[in-house]
Amino acid sequence: MCLAIPGKIISIKNNIAQVKYSKETRSVKIVSGNYKIGDYVIAQARRR
Predict the structure, then answer these.
(1) Which domain holds residue 22?
(2) Which pLDDT band holds residue 48 (cuts at 50, 70, 90)?
(3) Does residue 21 or residue 48 have the better pLDDT?
(4) Torsions phi, psi for 12 (to 5 deg)
(5) Cα–Cα distance for residue pair 8/6, rounded to 1 Å
(6) Which residues contact residue 38 at a Cβ distance below 8 angstroms, ignoring those fewer than 6 apart?
(7) 8 strand-pairing partners
(8) Number of domains forming the structure of the chain
(9) Hey, CA dihedral for 2, 17, 40, 26, is it positive or negative?
(10) 11-39 per-position pLDDT tens digit
């Protein structure tokens, strides 16, 4: 089962967005779409 939580884009540089979730900020690679600062996204988690 997967839990998806939306996050807000707070910055974008070289197709890497900094996405703010409730308690943390994560780097997310943008692979398609036209996103801008302030947009909300749902990013798939990667395996560690």
Answers:
(1) 1-30
(2) low
(3) 21
(4) -140, 130
(5) 7
(6) 8, 9
(7) 20, 40
(8) 1
(9) positive
(10) 999 999 999 998 999 999 999 989 999 99
**For residues 17 and 41, is the Cβ–Cβ distance under 8 A?**
yes
pLDDT at 45 over 90: no
CB atoms within 10 A of CB 39: 15
Residues in the chain: 48
> Which one, of 48, 46, 22, 44, lies nearest residue 32 by Cα?
44
Nearest partner of 45 among 22, 23, 33, 29, judged by Cα: 29
pTM, full prediction: 0.82
Does residue 14 lie in a domain region?
Answer: yes
Residue 48 belongs to some domain of the structure: no
